[in-house]
Amino acid sequence: MTITEMRNRYGSLCAEIYDLDKPPGSLFDIAYYQGRLRDLEGPILEGGVGTGRMLVPLLEAGLTVEGFDHSPEMLAVCQVNLDQRGLSTHLKQARFQDFHYDRDFAAIIVPTSSFVLIDDFDEALDVLKRFRQHLRPGGLLLIDLPPMSFFEVKAQPRRWTASNGDQLTLVSAMERNDPIGQRRVNQDRYERWRDGKLIETEIELFAYRVWGLKEFELTLQAAGFVDLEVCSNYRSGRAPKSGDGILNFSARAPG
After folding, report:
1. d(CA 115, CA 241)
2. Whole-angstrom distance, CA of residue 44 vs CA of residue 94
3. How many helices and strands, by DSSP H and E, does the chain display?
């Protein structure tokens, strides 16, 4: 497997740990998204749907949502989560850079900071244009991004217990930092331990792009979006300030 194929791959062990760490309905953004989307008429698309952490509660709330993800392993876990709850929707394996649908959407959402995984500026701009092309006139785009300070925090080793008692661990370390390109690459090492023995290891390379607040607003405008708004910490109308944990961008396709 090449370095390019390893980057932002989200393999089987990574997907299992992601689902343990962030099961459907977890984190603090569910109410925010339900509030922003509940009055829309038409289908909603989630980019980077992952294991269904956001998709499942939105479907349970009665919204019409489908999604795509680059990782077949993440999509497999997502399908299990849907089946366990008697839910059904359309899932597609695709990248941000090449997803395509033959219809438009009332809204496109990219929660959990997944957009930073597009680590090249030109590609990110093209993806935003692709979002606009897939939105109906006046359609809503919602994207969450971490503040620049998020990438300065050193990740600590973490541990989980799987349903069969296996111990799962994650150690993350920065491999490359490019301040000029606003880009960094982390190497994450996932391990499975059973009865004190290491039985599985998975190495993942994650490439991120760091965005400034005003920079992303200008990029949304360059992609053709209008009616830009930004709040923070999933509180509509709250102006971002130093120390906030997440920036919440919204914009609309031209009417």
Report:
1. 21
2. 16
3. 7, 11
Beta carbons of 253 and 132 less than 8 angstroms apart: yes
Q: Between the CA of residue 88 and those of 37, 79, 81, 102, 247, what are the distances in Å? A: 19, 9, 10, 20, 31
Alpha-carbon distance of 48 to 190, in angstroms, equals 21
Strands ordered across the beta sheet of 135-145: 91-93, 65-69, 44-47, 105-110, 135-145, 247-252, 226-232
Q: Which amino acid does the sequence have at 235? A: R
**What are the tens digits of pLDDT across the range 72-131?**
999 999 999 999 999 999 999 999 999 999 999 999 999 989 999 999 999 999 999 999
Q: Please answer whether residues 53 and 25 qualify as being in contact, where contact means their C-beta atoms are separated by less than 8 angstroms.
A: yes
Token representation of residue 167: 């111990």
